[in-house]
Amino acid sequence: MSKPVRPVPIGDAIAGYFERHGLTRRVSAAGVVAEWADLVGPQIAAATEAESVTADGILWVRVASASWAQELRLMSPRILARINQGRKGRVREIRWVAGAPRRAP
């Protein structure tokens, strides 16, 4: 006779699945996109838009102009330190792409 299985809260089941399949760090890193404005502040957020984080930890950010992109490249180490603070999934590099951010209306 098999042992009865107890129900578990759905959140615990999902967290366990993510952990078993190595997705916890990826989801954590991808959270940077949603939190971008809070992480970088209003001035940088007004000129940028975080687009995605790749599986190997590269964050792609669209920037309003090439001059902004250059300025932000110089600030990358500080920005990386801020966005990785307390996060399981690490962003290892930021790629700044010049071109107007595509904000939703």
Describe the protein in words.
This protein is an alpha+beta fold. It has a single domain, classed as GMP Synthetase, Chain A, domain 3. Helix content is 50%, strand content 17%. It has four helices and three strands, in the order αααββαβ. It has helices at 10-20, 24-40, 42-47, 66-84, and strands spanning 48-53, 58-63, 93-98. It has a three-stranded mixed β-sheet with strand order 1-2-3.
List the helices and strands and how they pair.
Blueprint: H1 10-20, H2 24-40, H3 42-47, E1 48-53, E2 58-63, H4 66-84, E3 93-98
Parallel strand pairs: 2-3
Antiparallel strand pairs: 1-2
Helix pairs in contact: 2-4
The average pLDDT value, as a whole number, equals: 87
- Beta fraction: 15-25%
The computed structural class is: alpha+beta
Overall 3D shape: elongated
- Major sheet strand order: 1-2-3
CATH class division: Alpha Beta
Radius of gyration: 18 Å
Write the element-wise H/E pattern from the N-terminal end onward: HHHEEHE
Number of beta strands: 3
Helix content: 40-55%
